[in-house]
Input
Amino acid sequence: MKSALTPNKDSVNRVEAAALGRKNRPGWSQIRRRVSGSPNIEIAGRLDEVANIFAEQGANRFRTQAYRNAANVLRRLPRSVTDIFHEHGIEGLEKIPGVGASIARSIRDILLHGRLAMLDRLRGESDAIAVLASVPGIGKTVCLAVS
Output
């Protein structure tokens, strides 16, 4: 029987994580489950896809180029972005050359959720009602009436 003073596995992990400054960061298994294969190559492909859609839509060329540059850097990066994120969080991602705050958040979202909401919106794969409801002046009631 455990005594009240014996720490359990969860409390030890929380204490270790807090001591290392990882209090609110996901565990290894949460990140690894969402990104299969080589995370750098997979994420680079998604960033390239964002850049291609931006280019097709005539978006700011500097923003388009930033996504392309970040994708190229990730492909050549000798270390996994999963490891960098696990050890240093979003600050570590921002230290990667060519990766700013916005792209670092995009990488984080892919690692944590396995998808990039911005890319889904750009592809047009979002829920039609949600897209329509995002138009100013059109609420949920009108969207449901139209659909």
User: Anything to note?
Assistant: The mean pLDDT is 78. The CA atoms of residues 37 and 43 lie 10 Å apart. DSSP finds nine helices and no strands in the chain. The chain has one domain: 12-115.
